[in-house]
Amino acid sequence: MGSKEIDDMESILKGLPSYAIYKQFSELRDIQFCQKHFTNLLNLQDKNSNITEFCNNISGIIQHLYKNKRENYFRENCQYVNFYIYDRIKIMFPPDSALINSILNNINIEWYLVNKNLLEEKCSFKYYHKTDEVDKWNVMKIIYDYKKNYNYIKGKTNDYDACIKYGKYLNKVKKIYEIKKSECCDKDNGQCGIYFFECKTIEHPDTLLQEINCPALATDNSRETHADGNKDSSDNGSLKTSMVAISPFIGILASFFLSYKFSPLGSWLRSKIQGINIKDIPYNEDTEELLAYESENDDINTNNIPYNISYKNI
């Protein structure tokens, strides 16, 4: 991405609009187009070089532009193509000025013909033969990506975690923005327009940092957490209050049971209760006779009863 600090954040910023465009570019390939139009570039290939892979990739991008050669598409994506190519050169090749200059010269020559014959001269490759060309493009890429990501970040920071993530990104962009603003906007030297740095259309990162307002979201998040904690505490408090209220009653029941079961007082109470029950049963002569009859039957041994089964002839 141009800055190591921002490069290290790339894994958490993949959802941003600019990264979606670069991801699409990275997946494009056209081997035949590369072999036909970039033969001089392929001649730079050696066993330790990524020239062929790089050539196939940028050839796929050119074909993609050709198939979508609408005015709006060129206007929206051609700048990204330039930033992407310089970013890939930085990533794929060692910082050897001789090799990089050879790569850029070959791309510049071949792209001129492709732009004229296929792209209707609407998407040129920018190369100004400066010794620090790759570094300049990658620094400007950060600012241009920030411009593209601005509204997305503004609308996607409704929660605290997202705000913190994008806040870190904006603070790193801010350092680069302030340097380039001083070079490109505060001085009337006009040297930054070639890198698509448009002073009037790029808001200061501080403006967006104030709008997303992470401290306010942190306060809201804290309030929600506190409210959830209060609810749990209230539920626990109600349970504790209920337990306190019924605990004495449970204690009384337990004490009464133990006293009744094991203490001398319990034995005395049981004897009293049993005595009362016996005395309270009313006397009934029929009942007495029935009990006597049942008692007599209980004394009879059924094994001593002889069985005499008689049969009658039919």
Structure, described:
This protein is mainly alpha-helical and 314 residues long. Among the domains are: 4-158, no CATH class; 229-279. It is 70% helix and 0% strand. It contains 13 helices and no strands. It is elongated, with a radius of gyration of 46 Å. The chain starts with a helix and ends in a 16-residue tail after the last helix.
Distance between the termini: 120 Å
Rg on CA atoms, Å = 46 Å
The share of residues in extended strands comes to: under 5%
User: How many helices does DSSP assign?
Assistant: 13
Helical content stands at: over 70%
Question: Major sheet, described briefly?
Answer: none
Instruction: Specify the structural class.
Output: mainly alpha
The total count of strands amounts to 0
Task: Write down the overall geometry.
Answer: elongated
| SSE string | HHHHHHHHHHHHH
Mean pLDDT metric: 77
Uncertain stretches of 5 or more adjacent residues:
223-228, 276-281, 283-314
InterPro entries: Plasmodium_Vir (IPR008780)
Protein name: PIR protein
Organism: Plasmodium ovale
